[in-house]
Amino acid sequence: MRAIVYTRQSMDAAGEGRAVARQAEDCLKLAESRGWDVVAQYEDNDISAAGKKTRPGFEKVLADLGAGRAGAVIAWNLDRLTRNRRDTVRLIETAQEAGAVISVVRGSDLDMSTPAGRMTADLLAAVARNEIEVKSDRQRRANEQRALAGEAPRNGRRPFGYTLGLTETVPTEAAMIRDAYAQLLAGGSLTSLARQWNASGALTSTGHRWKADTVRSVVAAPRNAALRRYRGEVVATGTWPAIVDEAQWHALVAILSDPSRSTSDDRAIKYLLPRIALCGKCGARMSTGSKARGQRTYKCLEHHHLAVKAQPIDDYVTAVIVARLARPDLADIVDPGPDIDVDALRTEANTLRARMAEAARMFADGTITGAQLARINGDVTARLEAVEAEMSEAGERDVLARFVDAGDVAEVWEGLDILTQREIVKALFESITIMSPGPGHPPFNPDNVVLEWRRGDD
Ligand SMILES: [Zn+2]
How many other CB atoms sit within 10 Å of the CB of residue 414? Predict the structure, then answer.
């Protein structure tokens, strides 16, 4: 019979931790005593960092047995061959299918060609499968309970803004996060924050320079508002100190999940109206950046039927906005922000989350059925979403507010970054449609820019 010898170097149990050379020697002796032909020797090394994740040798054993290239695998003992229960199940299933023999120096063979061997293998595999289930179930329950109790997640990395385990905030970093909230809620950009944080010399908690993405993942984390997330959902109020309040966090998440503010857009958008302006021929969005006759144009994103010089349009829209913002009645169109009792909402949100957690426990105990759980969750989720939306509204500030009593509106406008300017465009206009200027190259005509006001048109 053709056989494979498998050895693994690891640092576990002393008696089994024989050197690889000794393991191989014992295995080869066993093969010889059986009269087997050793066709391959595979080895894994668990001591190296890579070995903790992958076991190429073990995978080759499975492949060879599965393909019938060998009828037996020899190892020093079964624990040496399979590092965990999952490996055991895979090995036994492969050997069973191939009718192969699993042979060990210390222990008895599992010969899948005999009824006794198959029965023992079935039993071993069943035990291993059960242990996998019990273990993962136990772990899942423990994790879930910790999450519902609002305990900090137990992973080894220190989150930016906090000490390891979230026991306390790191004041300088917490201040940066608060400042980031203030800027983002007022229309600032992630890219600009990344630049500022890099300029300040601050690094991520893993020692890297900031990018828009990493700033986003730090600021958007619910832990900043002492909210405990579990499997992607906020499930409880955490037991650690908050850096920002819950309403601010909801507002930030709402802003960051607005698709027109994705980080790739942040990097790409340098002008006032791309993806805001609409094509006058088909209503599709327009892009910019491409040049025709040395001039930037707004171009229909869907068809090749409209391209219009961009700068005169930007200048015109800017002039209209500045004129509107400079009017003394600006305060009348600025939303003063809703009068919302955030504390009451937060209390209600926590009560709702507790009710969901309680329902989940009752379902686990068998007190209620799956259908009842689904109904309770449906009701609670709907209300929770409404409450969260209200909190989010409470945290948002009107982008126009800065212009009330601003003095020189044009100067304030010039000082804003492009993303904030775009937020203002979106706040003021329902739509901006760019009509075809007609044949030839006629001079710019403001009538070809159709502005539909959202507010301020009175
Ligand atoms: Zn079009």
Answer: 11
Helices (H) and strands (E) in the chain, counts: 16, 13
Instruction: Report the separation in Å between the CA atom of 276 and the middle of ligand 1, taken as the mean of its atom positions.
Output: 13
Over 80: is that where the pLDDT of 309 sits? yes
Least confident of 131-140, 291-300, 426-435: 131-140
Positive or negative torsion for Cα 320, 321, 326, 329: positive
- CA 450 – ligand 1 centroid, Å: 15
Q: What share of the chain is helix, strand, coil (3-state, %, to 5)?
A: 50, 15, 35
**Closest Cα to residue 8, out of 57, 49, 52?**
57
Please, what is the end-to-end C-alpha distance for the chain in angstroms?
93
- The 10 Å Cβ neighbour count of residue 371 is 8
C-alpha 280 – ligand 1 centre gap (Å): 7
Measured between alpha carbons, how far is 93 from 125 in angstroms, rounded to an integer?
8
Contact 13, 80 (CB under 8 A): no
In three-state secondary structure terms, 440 is coil
- Average the pLDDT over 273-296 and give the result: 83
Give the DSSP per-residue string, 349-369. Answer: HHHHHHHHHHHHHHHHHTSS-
C-alpha 71, offset from chain centre: 45
Calculate how far, in angstroms, residue 274's C-alpha sits from the geometric centre of ligand 1.
13
Classify residue 96 as exposed, middle or buried by CB count within 10 Å of its CB (0-12, 13-18, 19+): middle
Query: Count of CB atoms within 10 A of residue 292's CB?
Result: 12
Q: How far apart are CA 18 and CA 380, in angstroms?
A: 58
* Token pair for 120: 């023992």
| Residue-wise pLDDT tens digits, 180-193 | 998 887 777 888 89
Alpha helix stretches (DSSP H) within 236-310: 246-256, 263-268
What is the CB neighbour count within 10 angstroms for residue 364? 12
Nearest to 205 by CA among 235, 176, 234: 176
At 126, which amino acid appears? Answer: A
Residue 212 Cα to ligand 1 middle (Å): 32
CA separation for the pair 243, 246 (Å, rounded):
10
Q: Write out pLDDT tens, residues 198-246.
A: 999 999 888 889 988 889 989 999 999 999 988 778 888 899 999 998 8
* Listed residue (388, 384, 344, 152) closest to 248, CA to CA: 388
Residues with C-beta atoms within 5 A of ion ligand 1: 279, 281-282, 284, 300, 303
Model confidence pTM above 0.70? no
